């Protein structure tokens, strides 16, 4: 075997772990791209940033108006 390859013992152990997780009902594989996209927020980060900027900016301007005027 080449140095980068796992030994037969390691492969058997990992296969057994995979089988246990599969039997337990856990998702042993990496989620698909569609599943990852389905879990994403419907609002983009840039849109959330703009909303926060507008709200925080309004609060800051109101505080300045109250203090100085």
UniProtKB/TrEMBL annotation:
Keyword Signal: no
Any one Gene Ontology cellular component term annotated for this protein: endoplasmic reticulum membrane
A Pfam family this chain is assigned to: RAMP4
InterPro entries associated with the record: ER_stress-assoc (IPR010580)
Chain segments annotated as transmembrane: 43-68
Subcellular location: Membrane; Endoplasmic reticulum membrane
Membrane topology qualifier: Single-pass membrane protein
Keywords: Endoplasmic reticulum, Membrane, Transmembrane, Transmembrane helix
Region Disordered, residue ranges: 1-38
Family: Belongs to the RAMP4 family.
Task performed by this protein: Interacts with target proteins during translocation into the lumen of the endoplasmic reticulum. Protects unfolded target proteins against degradation and facilitate correct glycosylation.
Protein name: Stress-associated endoplasmic reticulum protein
Naturally occurring in which organism (per UniProt): Daedalea quercina L-15889
């Amino acid at each position: 075997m080449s140095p980068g390859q796992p030994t037969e013992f390691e492969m058997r152990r990992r296969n057994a772990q995979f089988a246990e997780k599969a039997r337990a009902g856990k998702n042993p594989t990496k989620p698909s791209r569609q599943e990852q996209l389905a879990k994403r927020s419907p609002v983009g980060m840039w849109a959330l940033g703009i909303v926060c900027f507008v709200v925080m900016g309004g609060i800051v301007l109101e505080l300045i108006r109250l203090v100085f005027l």
